[in-house]
Amino acid sequence: ASQRRWCGCMGLRWLSLCSRGLSLPSHATSLTLGRMRATGVTDESWETVVQLRAKKIASERVLAAEAHRLAEMQAFLRRRTMEEDEHNERAGEVVEALQTCRDERLDHEVNVEILVPIKQGSLEVQHTNDFEPEYSLARLIPASVVHDLNAQILQLGQVRVDHMTSIMELKKSIHTLEWQHEYFDMLATDLAAKLKDVQLMRVTR
C-alpha cells in the first residue's frame, strides 16, 4: 500500500511536470511510466491512463499555443488601436489647421485694408485723444445714405417748424382778438361817458 501511494505521488508529480511542458525523452517516458505503474493496475487501465495523459498534454500545449497567439493578437490590437488614436489626433489637428487657414484666407479676402479719401467735415468720429485717433469702431457709410437721412431730418424739421408757425399765428390771432375786444370795451365806455355828458348838458336859448 505504501509503495502504491509512493507511485501515485510520483505519477502526479510527473504529470504536473508534463503539463508544464517539461516532457521527457521517449525511452525515459516509457521507463518512467513503467516505474510509476502501481501494483495491481491492469494493462488496459494503464493504457487508458497513458492515453488520457497524452491527450491532456496535447490539449494543454494547444491551449498554451492559443493563449500565446491570443496574447500576440491582443498586443497587435493594442498597437493598432494606439496607432489609430494617434492618426485620429493628427487628422483632427490637420482639419483644425485647415479650418484656421480657410478662416484666415476669408478674413484676408473680406477685411481688406484700403485708403479712403474723405472730405473735411464728413468724418464724424469722436476721439479721446485727437493726436492718436482710433478708427477701430468707425463705420464707412455711403454718402447717399447720409443724404437721405439728412433729407428726412430736414423734412421732419420743416414739419415741426410749420407746426410751430401755425401755433404762433394762432396765438397772434388770439392776442389780436383780445386787443380788439379790449379796444371796443374802452370805446364803449368812452361813448357811454360822452352820452352821459350830453344828457346832463343844459340847453340855453
Quick structural overview:
The chain contains 4 helices and no strands.
Structure report:
The protein is mainly α. The chain is 76% helix and 0% strand. The chain starts with a helix and ends in a 5-residue tail after the last helix.
Set out the fold topology.
Blueprint: H1 2-19, H2 26-36, H3 43-110, H4 143-200
Radius of gyration: 62 Å
Q: Briefly note the structural class of the backbone.
A: mainly alpha
Provide the residue-averaged pLDDT: 80
* Shape estimate: rod-shaped
Q: Count the strands?
A: 0
Strand residue percentage? under 5%
Salient structural properties:
single chain; 205 residues; mainly alpha; rod-shaped; disordered N terminus
